[in-house]
Amino acid sequence: MPIFPGLAKCPTAALQNNNHGGCAAAKIKMETWVALLLRYNPALDGLRAVAVVLVISDHCGVPVFDQGYFGVDLFFVLSGFLITRLLVDEIDATGRIELWRFYLRRLLRLAPALLLFLAAYMLIAPSIWPQFDFLLHLRDAALVGFYLSDYSQAFWHNPKVLIHTWSLSVEEHFYLIWPFAVLLLARIEPRWRLAVLFGLYLLASAWRIFEYETVGWNATYYRFDTRISGLLCGALLATFLQHKGPISEKAANAAGLIAWTALVICLSIGFWEAPWSLVVMTNLAHVAAIGLLIAASTKNSWVSSILSAPPLVAIGIISYGMYLWHYPAALYFRELTPWYLTGPIVLSFSIVMAMVSYLTIERPLQKYRRSLGGHQRNAEAKPVSAGDDRALPTATATATT
Fold this sequence. Notes:
Strand content: under 5%
Number of helices: 16
């Protein structure tokens, strides 16, 4: 019995031996899997751009974008969607998940750029924020490097400067456990998988609300266990679309309209630390992300056309780096300059540093990552969410994937 419909039935070794005629189907399956991974939808990079610009605008104090921290929720849903799709495609094609390949790809995607950022931070931060001694900066860099800043921020208000990295930690924790969860889901009858994921999403949302009522905003907002609902929402959508035929242009346009309406509501009344923001608006942001993903999946929809605009795609490609570099700059300049100067300065700085990171580290590693399984950019959920580290309320995300 295949784990998922169309599961390859031949041993992995057979994929390397074209003389075994009985395993020709497995070879075709592997080729199909690689083709799936090589699909590229520029609209998803456009969605990353929207999310990271919302977060940066929020952190720079740009009026009207005070609630831009909801960009992190877009990142979380996008990350859950892409990672689940990647894992499910691999199971369908090969019958298993190569865990070491998955974790190595994640490591190569995220760690090099993060280490470059942390090295630069340790060189510069002690002179910019001398109120914190060198050891404190070093401790904060260690928290970030070991992906512990979500719980350390929630319970101990650390790190002091690198607050935005909490969302990176949330996504990293998700990457650690989700391949095993997908393997378990694969053993459930297809008709029950959606129900199980929807039930998990409801439980995660209820847990977030309960924790908010019990321990308050900060101890709830930054934690993996209270923010996993967005990632589960993305996984739910990926599973749903797996069994769905092509989405019509009319349905995609309607989903896009609902999505933008939901996002505008979040940005209008989803105030930082307001009770309804964590209780209700977070789920409404998930609805916005779902609608945008559905709309973006149809090439001719108006949402896909907007999100596929070259400037947005270009920003989306380097959104992970932008998320990493923007917050310290925003924290520094917003104390010295008005928002209409802070915004352009921080955006320009983030783009420049992200380009340096992308051209010197991220892009050179892409070829090797792809050799580990035909990995493509959209299959890599950049934790941009990070762009949503809400330091002052900063939010990140992830996810990004």
